[in-house]
User: Fold Cytochrome c oxidase caa3 assembly factor (Caa3_CtaG) from Bythopirellula goksoeyrii.
Amino acid sequence: MRSVLFISGLLILAFAWMGPLPEMAAHSFSAHMTLHMLIVAVIAPLLSFALAGLAIDPVRHMAALFSPIPASVGELLIVWAWHAPWLHHFARNSSIGFALEQTMFLAAGVWVWLSAFGGTMPRSKSRAAAGVVGLLLTSMHMTLLGALLALAPRLLFNHHHSLIGLSPLQDQHLGGAVMLVVGGIAYLAGGLWLTVDLANQRNPNCEALQA
Assistant:
């Protein structure tokens, strides 16, 4: 199963970066946001689930650098910074900017997901609880940014054209909706998964009393 997850993540990453989306994203905000969500909400969790708990899992060796809540704050700063107009246009109009943006998105996504799900197994209650908070915080800021983009009354980013006959403003609203739905739901689902895992863990003190 780990091999399937890892290979699936790499194949989707190859499609995301080598398929039509990068060229489309240079002109369409909704294409850009689709690419962004593929990276952080699909590829990053697939790769992280494949690595979590293995000997090469960096959380097992550098746990202090993979604390879920700081990782969530770090991703928030990275995501919101790259959606500031001048950095966004730098990524759209420069191959260096695009490569830097995409690399940081992937690194931030893996940082958050691996911080929440990685480490020694079985997962400790403290890490699971911190993972719940980190993923829910990420879901909240993704939802907020998506809502701001989807509801903005004017263009925040200028593109040469949009997709499927939409106006540039409608294209921006569609991109915000993609982030709102895909990003919000993916991180919320991850937080709920960890919540269920945390609730199912037996209390060691209760087990000792029962013994």
In short: Confidence is low (pLDDT under 50) at residues 204-211. The CA atoms of residues 64 and 115 lie 10 Å apart. The chain has ten helices and no strands.
